[in-house]
Amino acid sequence: MLLDRDAAEIGAMAEALRPETRAFIDGEYRTGSLGESFTTENPATGEAIAKVVLCTGEDVDAAVTSARTAFEDGRWSGRSPRDRGRVLLRLAELIDEHREELALLECLDTGKPIRDAYTADITKSAAMTRWYAEAADKLYDEVAPTRPDVLAVVRREPLGVVGCVTPWNFPLYQAAYKLGPVLVSGNSLIIKPAEQTPLTTIRLAALALEAGVPPGVLNVVPGDGPITGAALGRHPDVDCLAFTGSTATARRFLAYSAESNAKKVCVEAGGKSPHIVFPDAGDLDEVAEAVVWGIFYHQGQVCSAGSRLFVHRAIAGELLDRVVLLAEALRVGDPLDPGTQVGALISDRQRRRVMDYIERGRAEGARLLTGGHGTRAGTGGHFIAPTVFDQVRNDMTIAREEIFGPVLAVLPFDDIDEVVRLANDTAYGLGAGLWTRDIDLALGVAARLRAGQVWVNNYDGSDWSVPWGGFKQSGTARDKSLHAIDEYTAPKATWIQTRPPAPFTLVTR
Ligand code: NAD
């Protein structure tokens, strides 16, 4: 197995990869109409991995036409749910069978540790696809409780052509979030992966074709945001746009919709999630571990990262000692090394952005407990040491803005109302965690927190059977679970007038 090898062996495997870099339109790989390309880079070395086709508006048009034709002629939308499920089940198997190749591509493209790419990103992408495949023929439509002379059948109908624009932090997994519910319900799909990390999504297209997804039903249009993403967002023949990324870009997609065909826009956006530790939290070693992984997993580039730690003043010292020890013990290293726990940030731009926030934290009076500097100089990679700031106030920049990097802001508190008010005092509402042994306190505070998911005595638990999404500027849609299928379907009523029921006749002999 991949993770039993050492970094040199894994490096040689990565070196041998020849990633596909073309767009996938109408069931085949194609070069772009204008012959333009962009470079995808390895964040751990700063070196180019490959030149990737940049799709222009013309290529997006071709993908939309292909997706529309496929939707209208019923080659996928017209098949039985069970048939679609079988194909997606095969796709899940193929993702599993290619998990070494996909994990290597993901690791190279994102800078995330190979252990995470292999055990989390790819494994979960297969599992999520399988979950939707299995759900395919287990969903029933409705008959409404109307008058007896009417049969009102309410069917879940696919929306048609769905565009999907994904971020760079979990490229294949984010594609799988959308692919399952979009395709299982009969839609056609066009994915524009993030320009930093297009390789696994491009590869996914060929696996889908091999699994039996017909040409045109899944298209992949690599490219940048302002050209390719905007062309999809503004396209008059796209029925729904599923977006995951920053809140700033989410707003753009809402504007694209308003300016084009008022397409449905499903948004999953940023976060600034509070992680609250009450004095009766229990085992502080366990809490510290959850705090550290809650912020430093994937270098803090996680939408639901627990980036604001609210700790009760009575236990703040004890908890922070543990958090700092654990943060300093994290192995920041070569992402291709299976022993690495923290890899590289996605780009030099992102590294500079995070360093600016660290400077702002210092300048605004927060106390730096550990980190605060770059690391692994000389590798060419974009590494920052796990960083913890204490004595943060909720009005400081590092407590208000989504840093999307390995920076934890610690804010002490004294009472319940105060911490609920501070936790909710943010534009975001994605995740929230809390630790207490008091069930009444846990349920009471969980109910008052404005977040799409609240974790009690754990942080960042997730499963494809549980809906995922945000409140406020963290988003409007729900990924995962059967609720995601509602995003890509609409209830359609067929109203059938029947004859009035015959009166009962008493039969006498
Ligand atoms: P981003 O908004 O910069 O980019 C996301 C996608 O939008 C990319 O594919 C990009 O090419 C495209 N895009 C960018 N500008 C565009 C424009 N002007 N027009 C059209 N498309 C455009 O986000 P990112 O930096 O890739 O990802 C990080 C963000 O994603 C963070 O804010 C994070 O919280 C969020 N995120 C949210 C979730 C969630 O489930 N809520 C999950 C993962 C990431």
TrEMBL record:
Per its UniProt entry, which superkingdom is the organism in? Bacteria
Please report the name of this protein according to its UniProt entry.
Answer: Aldehyde dehydrogenase
Q: Family per UniProt?
A: Belongs to the aldehyde dehydrogenase family.
* Family matches, as InterPro entries: Ald_DH/histidinol_DH, Ald_DH_C, Ald_DH_CS_CYS, Ald_DH_CS_GLU, Ald_DH_N, Aldehyde_DH_dom
Catalytic site: 268
- Read off the PANTHER family from this record: ALDEHYDE DEHYDROGENASE-RELATED (PTHR11699)
Q: Name one GO molecular function term.
A: oxidoreductase activity, acting on the aldehyde or oxo group of donors, NAD or NADP as acceptor
List keywords of the entry alphabetically. Oxidoreductase
Q: Where is the Aldehyde dehydrogenase domain?
A: 36-493
Q: Does the keyword Secreted apply?
A: no
Source organism of this protein record = Sphaerisporangium rufum
